[in-house]
Amino acid sequence: xxxxxxxxxxxxxxxxxxxxxxxxxxxxxxxxxxxxxxxxxxxxxxxxxxxxxxxxxxxxxxxxxxxxxxxxxxxxxxxxxxxxxxxxxxxxxxxxxxxxxxxxxxxxxxxxxxxxxxxxxxxxxxxxxxxxxxxxxxxxxxxxxxxxxxxxxxxxxxxxxxxxxxxxxxxxxxxxxxxxxxxxxxxxxxxxxxxxxxxxxxxxxxxxxxxxxxxxxxxxxxxxxxxxxxxxxxxxxxxxxxxxxxxxxxxxxxxxxxxxxxxxxxxxxxxxxxxxxxxxxxxxxxxxxxxxxxxxxxxxxxxxxxxxxxxxxxxxxxxxxxxxxxxxxxxxxxxxxxxxxxxxxxxxxxxxxxxxxxxxxxxxxxxxxxxxxxxxxxxxxxxxxxxxxxxxxxxxxxxxxxxxxxxxxxxxxxxxxxxxxxxxxxxxxxxxxxxxxxxxxxxxxxxxxxxxxxxxxxxxxxxxxxxxxxxxxxxxxxxxxxxxxxxxxx
Length: 490
Known about the structure:
Elements: H1 2-15, H2 17-22, H3 27-37, E1 45-46, H4 47-63, H5 72-82, E2 85-90, E3 95-100, H6 102-115, H7 123-139, H8 144-167, H9 175-190, H10 192-216, H11 221-237, H12 239-252, H13 254-268, H14 278-285, H15 287-314, H16 317-338, H17 389-397, H18 403-417, H19 422-428, H20 435-448, E4 449-461, E5 467-477, H21 482-489
Antiparallel strand pairs: 1-3, 2-3, 4-5
Helix pairs in contact: 6-10, 10-11, 10-15, 11-12, 11-15, 12-15, 18-21
């Protein structure tokens, strides 16, 4: 048994981030800063806000002689790589957020236990243990006669207590013991963020395991989708999912939550509550709110994982992942075969084309400053002049094909000839815009004409004065088309 524990602890010492954090050279720096920002229910912070807080505190530490040469953003990048912080995308604000990992919460709890002034052997803690043991012994008893005896004993105790209260002969909990119980409640509540982080980490690990199982499964889409739905049920029925679901059901129960809220307000109205410091009073008042908010976040994680698993298969994205995985494994197998023949540092007579993209953190992006686009030079006002329509028309014709002019030319030719091709129109009306006129006539012929047998030559004058000729297929304009008949009737 001792040998097995030794192997287990050696593995934890090598792999667990909490152990690595506690033995790190800058453990005091990390725990002091993260403990200040992520305490009393604060689960996550926007990355820019955390960077600003870190920079301010780091500057204060430098002023006191501490060697902290890096920026807050650089420290956070190291802590993310080490597993002390988790980087996530906030769907509501579309901003990157940072939050402590399960291991960081474990390290913070351990250090808080070393420095806590409250003794772990208190009357309130022993009372909590005794009550839990009593409830466990009663609720797990399968025999009706012993359960009835226990319930009757509790009823008799309640009757005696009721009689004592009615007679006025009862004792009130003294202020010292009452404050002790409040601190015990706050200590238990302080462990909830770490518990939520552990549940969330277990759910995400289970999600990764299910996705890996989907990629390794060569079954068809129906079988894979069945595995996904079983996996979704597995997320909810896992130890983490089941324990959290029971907790969350109690929190969102209106009767239970309103009762807890009423108890909190009642306790805060007692005189002994003023023996607490302002931070403890604030934490005690927000006890239910913080649990509801943290519970909602974990519940949203469970829902998101379930939806993403279904979408992963229903959208058939898993097939592309499978194909990529097969290619990677094939490349690895080929590399193993080539290993005895060529060394990794051998120069190959093969030219490789490097492709890919550089992936940067969202926090590394620079925001656009609209002030950079402001015109610094004063605006010059020009005198108002008269508009020359002919000149405006000339300017427009330099960049646009005058389709109205071409439609009028086609209508005029059709009125005279009865039928017309592109060459007929150009013979009656020379191309005033050169090649642009010829192109416009081709467009109108394709849209409002039809092909006929044969080809024909069309000509126009280039800007340098030379005659240009092109050979095109014959197209005859449709005289009944509204574009031309309307013009003709007018």
